[in-house]
Amino acid sequence: MEKQVKLFLEFIENDKKLSSNTLQSYRRDIVQFEEYLENGNIVYDKLGKEDLEKYIEYLKDIGKKTSTISRNIASIRSFYQYLVRTKKIKKDPTEGIQSPKIEKKAPSILSSEEIELLLEQPKNIDLKGIRDKAMLEFAYATGMKVTEIISLNIEDANLEESYVVCNSGFKKRNIPLGSISKKALEDYIKNARPILIKDDKEKALFVNINGKRLTRQGFWKIVKFYKEQAHITKEITPHVLRHSFATHLLQNGADLKSIQTMLGHSDISSTQVYMQFQDDTIKNVYHKAHPRA
């Protein structure tokens, strides 16, 4: 099994164009499953439906969350589908296995006033302040994921046409920039980034004080710092800015399909979770006006 796991991971890395975080999740899930089979003396290519159901029960017993179990099943299913395609096995044992249903929790959001307060904190009086101002304005203006933002290169920002190109796996999309975000980004690109970068070959749009591409951890620390500066009691993560972006767009009359496109959601149901933040008036208007509501 070890050889097949290695080949499978190489396959998804080379052919699926997945993010490093997704690849690590696949690797974790499959390696954990491999260890379980070895401990139970179960041969991977003789696996039955009952064996998988017992594994799901095992994950529940050790306290894994429903979302983690669902991801595990998805990883294992991908592995066995690969084995069928490469003719290592004849039948996929994951057929008919149901993933546990995940309840969609209401995402945490900031009010418009809290957003204003947060975005007022960075002061463009030094290089770090200029960068942080541009970065926070950009995160709220585009609703992009942290991994998408830190993966951006300088050429992805089209200031002349006021949009940014997001290359997320297979989903390449153009996201418009508002005037405030565009102005802050222009200030950063013109007055801060050229001084921060130590190497002219650096392509990253947002860099740290050492001139290297900003990391997820670096991004999170910056958000946390300004949250404390603003004395906001709510827990704020970079993802909260994404949720707030979507909710505020919807509250101001944007249609779900447009928000779905900007967020990069493949399924409209992922976007519909933001409907619960609407007041009754807007909900009623939506249900009356939309032909498929």
Can you characterise this structure?
The structure is a single chain. The chain is mainly α. The protein has 2 domains: 84 residues, Tyrosine recombinase, N-terminal domain (DNA polymerase, domain 1); 178 residues, Intergrase catalytic core (hpI Integrase, Chain A, Orthogonal Bundle). 57% of the residues lie in helices and 5% in strands. The chain contains 13 helices and 3 strands. A 3-stranded antiparallel β-sheet has the order 1-2-3. A hairpin with a 4-residue loop joins strand 1 and strand 2. The longest helix has 20 residues.
Number of strands: 3
- Number of helices in the DSSP assignment: 13
Distance between the termini: 49 Å
**CATH C-level label of the largest domain:** Mainly Alpha
Mean pLDDT across all amino acids: 80
CATH architecture of the largest domain: Orthogonal Bundle
Topology-level CATH name of the largest domain:
hpI Integrase, Chain A
Radius of gyration (CA) equals 23 Å
* Domain unit count: 2
How would you sum up the global shape?
elongated
Q: How would you name the CATH homologous superfamily of the largest domain?
A: Intergrase catalytic core
Order of secondary-structure elements: HHHHHHHEEEHHHHHH
- What's the main sheet like? 3 strands, antiparallel
Structural class: mainly alpha
Low-confidence stretches: 270-283, 285-293
Helix content: 55-70%
Strand line-up of the largest beta sheet = 1-2-3
How much β-strand is present in the residues? under 5%
